[in-house]
Design brief:
flat, mainly alpha, single chain
């Protein structure tokens, strides 16, 4: 299969008759995989040929499409044909949509046709918009209309905005204004912001403000944040804030945190803090830990600590362990969750070292049993026999029982039945004070049906 560019270059040299003949030949064969039709070689050839035929003779291409018996190929070619048709004559393409059978993906065809129409003559496209309501999916009319206004705003945002406000209930004005503002903000942010300031408080202003932030936050989240700070905060403010947080957290989480500290409160503050700290925990865990130490927020820490612990352990085990030891003792659940994640990451990389540290430094820790089980479980995933040998040598007690049962359970999943049964029988003989659940699990692996 040639590259897409080579294919298009080849097809572009064909005349209409040859293109149609090739189309008929390809469309006579069924698609091999319906779900991947658009990315298959077969689909690429059909798309290139049908687009070229529509570019040369749009009505002939449409007539061929309507007669095509291969429904999968028909649906595939429709998008290419209407894309080419609407680029050449969008009004005619829009008028042709009702000729299609009702099983088509009309919304895709509507959007492509309106985009091309709006690029050439947005006022004429708007005048013809009502025709879409008669299509089988007339309920998608409002979405398609908002696409038209968004495309119009790329060439003349002032005209698009004025017309959208005039249309009112005839379109989805909220979505249209959001699309206009988003496009405008990418071209001229000050002008777009000044326009939003002229709108009366209410849904229109909220929608336009949201569009400004959507468009601006992709390229300049700091500027989008400054604009957000000027808006009245209400029940919808967190929705408007989301694109700023999403984009800024990925590019500069420290700057987002600084801005949030000075400008946000309550749920908005938490909405910014969480993604920023999660991103920082991946790129600079020490900085994330320092921030959390200075700005304790249990609700945020609970969701950031696992990511922070795992990432820091992956980069610097001693530093991660030292950080865990500094965590407040009055929140053992949070501390132990962090410690568990550090040990899990360490065990995956060097199980013997992690196990040795556990025995030498955490033998009296209140969560020794849970930590021991975690090490045994993680180690067993790599080498169940080595993990079992280590677990059996631990001091007698509940932590050893937990670790041995975890190792035997994993061994039973990967080792021959006889090997697992022997290990379970040995554990039943070795361990004392097993819980009923642990004893039952070992007995099942050993092949016994009665307790003893």
């Amino acid at each position: 299969m040639p590259s897409e560019r080579a294919l298009n270059d080849y097809v572009a040299k064909l005349d209409a008759a040859t293109t149609k003949a090739l189309l008929e030949d390809f469309a006579a064969h069924p698609l091999t995989t319906n779900d991947n039709a658009m990315t298959s070689d077969y689909g690429a050839v059909l798309s290139a040929l049908s687009y070229h035929l529509a570019d040369l003779e749009p009505e002939a291409a449409l007539a061929w499409l309507l007669e095509l018996q291969n429904k999968n190929a028909q649906a595939l070619c429709a998008a290419s044909i209407f894309d080419a048709y609407s680029a050449k004559n969008p009004a005619a393409a829009l008028n042709a949509l009702p000729r299609l059978p009702p099983n088509f993906n009309f919304i895709q065809l509507e959007v492509n046709t309106l985009i091309n129409f709006a690029r050439q003559d947005p006022s004429a496209a708007l005048a013809q918009l009502g025709k879409l309501q008669d299509l089988p999916n007339g309920g998608q009319f409002t979405f398609a209309s908002s696409v038209l206004f968004g495309e119009w705003a790329k060439s003349d945002p002032v005209a698009a905005a004025n017309e959208a406000l005039k249309q009112g209930a005839g379109i989805d004005s909220s979505m249209a204004l959001s699309n206009i503002a988003s496009s405008w903000a990418q071209q001229d942010p000050p002008a777009a912001m000044a326009w939003v300031d002229t709108l009366p408080d209410g849904q229109s202003k909220t929608s336009a403000a949201q569009g400004i932030i959507l468009g601006l936050s992709e390229t300049n989240p700091a500027a989008a944040a400054d604009f957000f700070s000027r808006l009245p905060h209400n029940d919808t403010s967190q929705i408007i804030l989301q694109p700023i947080v999403r984009n800024w957290a990925q590019t500069d989480p420290a700057a987002l945190l600084t801005w949030a500290d000075h400008n946000l409160t309550g749920s908005n503050y938490n909405a910014a803090l969480l993604p920023a700290l999660r991103q920082m925990a991946s790129s600079d865990p020490a900085k994330a830990a320092a921030y959390l130490a200075q700005n304790p927020n249990p609700a945020i820490a609970e969701r950031v600590f696992p990511v922070l612990a795992s990432n820091w352990a992956g980069q610097n085990i001693p530093a991660a362990l030292a950080w865990v030891q500094t965590l407040p003792q009055d929140n053992l659940v949070l501390r132990n969750a962090a410690l568990t994640n550090v040990l899990t990451t360490w065990t995956a990389a060097d199980p013997q070292a992690a196990a040795t540290y556990l025995q030498q430094n955490l033998a009296t820790d209140a969560s020794l049993g849970a930590l021991t089980t975690q090490v045994a479980t993680t180690w067993s995933g790599q080498d169940p026999e080595a993990a079992l040998t280590w677990a059996e040598r631990l001091p007698a007690g509940a932590p050893r029982n937990d670790a041995v049962v975890a190792a035997v359970t994993t061994l039973a999943q990967v080792a021959p039945q006889a090997t697992a049964a022997s290990a379970a029988q040995n554990a039943l003989s070795l361990l004392t004070e097993l819980t009923p659940v642990q004893k039952s699990a070992l007995q099942n692996i050993a092949g016994k049906n009665t307790a003893h």
